[in-house]
C-alpha cells in the first residue's frame, strides 16, 4: 500500500538522523494549531486516539491537533520542502499553549525525494511536489466520479438523531474509496470531530483474540466540519486498498467535536 510504503521509507530515513523529538501536550476539548514553515504534504499519528487535520486538497502550513485519553504516541509531518518533523504526543487535561509556530530548525532533517518511488515499483523517482499534485488530482477526480455514481446504501447506523451511512465502497488503483453520508435529524447541529476507520478481528469480549487496526486516510473529499439540523452531507474517504479476511469487519467511528455523540458502524 503506497501510503504505508512511503511512511515506512520515511521512518527508515529518519532513524539515522540525530535530532531530539519535542513533546506536544493535547486533549479533546482544545485544538492545538501547528503552523509549519512550508505547506504540509503528509502527516501520520501513531495511534487513532490522536488526530492531526490538514488540507489535503490545497496544501497549507496549518495543521490542527487533538487527542483523547490513553497511551502516548507520536506525530510525523512531512512538508513541501521534503523536511520531516517529529513530535511526541501526550494527553493532558490542561494545555499550556493553543498554537505554535514550528521553526525550520526543529526539523529532524530532509528525507529528499528518493522515497517517492514509482507506484508500480519500477524505481523511477519523482519530485515530491509533482507526485503529490498528481495524486491529489487523481483522488479528487475519482472521488467526484464515485459521489455522482453511488446511489446504494451498504450499511447505516442511527444514534441520537445522527445517521451514518456507508453508501458504497469502490477500488481504484491502489486505494479504496468509501462513499459515506452523515444526516442530522436531531435538534442540535453536529460538529464533526473526526471519522476513523478500523479493521477489527474477533470478539471484543475476548481480549486475547480481538484486534483493532486503524487505517489512516490518504485523502478526504468534501469532508464536513458541521452538519446542521435537518441537513445531510456526503463525502469520500480514501484509504490504501484493503480486503476483509475471515471474521474481519470494517468499523467506522464518527465522533462529535463538542459533545458526547459517538456513532460506531460495523460492516463485513
Short description:
13% of the residues lie in helices and 44% in strands. The protein has 268 residues and is mainly beta.
Can you characterise this structure?
This protein has two domains: 109 residues, Sandwich (Immunoglobulin-like); 120 residues, Immunoglobulin-like, CATH 2.60.40. The chain is globular. The N terminus is likely disordered. The strands form four sheets. Strands 1, 3, 6, 7 and 9 form a five-stranded mixed beta sheet that branches. It is built from two helices and 19 strands. It has 268 residues and is mainly beta. The longest helix is centred in the middle third of the chain and has 22 residues.
Write the layout of secondary structure elements.
Blueprint: H1 2-14, E1 22-26, E2 32-35, E3 40-45, E4 50-54, E5 62-67, E6 73-79, E7 83-91, E8 99-101, E9 109-110, H2 128-149, E10 155-159, E11 162-172, E12 175-184, E13 190-201, E14 211-215, E15 219-221, E16 226-227, E17 232-240, E18 248-256, E19 262-267
Parallel strand pairs: 1-7, 2-8
Antiparallel strand pairs: 2-5, 3-6, 4-5, 6-7, 7-9, 10-11, 11-12, 12-17, 13-14, 13-16, 13-18, 15-17, 18-19
Amino acid at each position: 500500500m503506497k501510503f504505508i510504503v512511503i511512511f515506512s521509507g520515511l521512518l527508515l530515513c529518519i532513524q539515522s538522523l540525530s535530532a531530539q523529538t519535542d513533546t506536544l501536550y493535547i486533549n479533546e476539548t482544545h485544538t492545538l494549531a501547528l503552523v509549519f514553515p512550508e505547506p504540509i504534504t503528509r502527516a501520520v499519528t501513531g495511534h487513532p486516539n490522536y488526530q492531526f487535520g490538514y488540507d489535503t486538497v490545497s496544501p497549507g502550513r496549518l495543521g490542527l491537533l487533538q487527542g483523547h485519553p490513553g497511551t502516548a504516541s507520536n506525530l510525523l509531518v512531512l512538508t513541501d520542502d521534503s523536511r520531516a518533523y517529529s513530535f511526541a504526543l501526550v494527553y493532558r487535561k490542561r494545555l499550556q499553549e493553543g498554537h505554535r509556530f514550528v521553526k525550520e530548525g526543529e526539523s529532524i532533517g530532509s528525507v529528499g525525494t528518493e522515497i517517492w518511488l514509482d507506484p508500480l515499483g519500477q524505481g523511477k523517482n519523482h519530485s515530491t511536489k509533482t507526485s503529490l499534485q498528481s495524486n491529489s488530482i487523481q483522488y479528487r477526480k475519482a472521488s467526484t466520479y464515485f459521489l455522482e455514481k453511488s446511489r446504494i446504501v451498504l450499511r447505516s447506523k442511527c444514534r441520537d438523531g445522527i445517521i451514518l451511512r456507508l453508501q458504497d465502497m469502490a477500488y481504484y488503483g491502489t486505494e479504496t474509496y468509501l462513499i459515506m453520508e452523515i444526516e442530522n435529524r436531531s435538534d442540535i447541529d453536529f460538529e464533526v470531530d473526526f471519522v476513523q476507520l478500523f479493521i477489527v478481528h474477533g470478539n471484543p469480549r475476548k481480549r486475547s483474540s480481538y484486534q483493532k487496526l486503524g487505517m489512516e486516510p490518504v485523502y478526504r473529499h468534501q469532508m464536513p466540519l458541521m452538519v446542521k439540523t435537518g441537513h445531510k452531507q456526503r463525502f469520500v474517504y480514501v484509504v490504501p486498498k484493503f480486503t476483509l479476511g475471515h471474521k474481519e469487519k470494517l468499523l467506522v467511528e464518527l465522533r462529535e467535536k463538542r459533545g458526547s455523540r459517538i456513532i460506531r458502524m460495523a460492516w463485513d
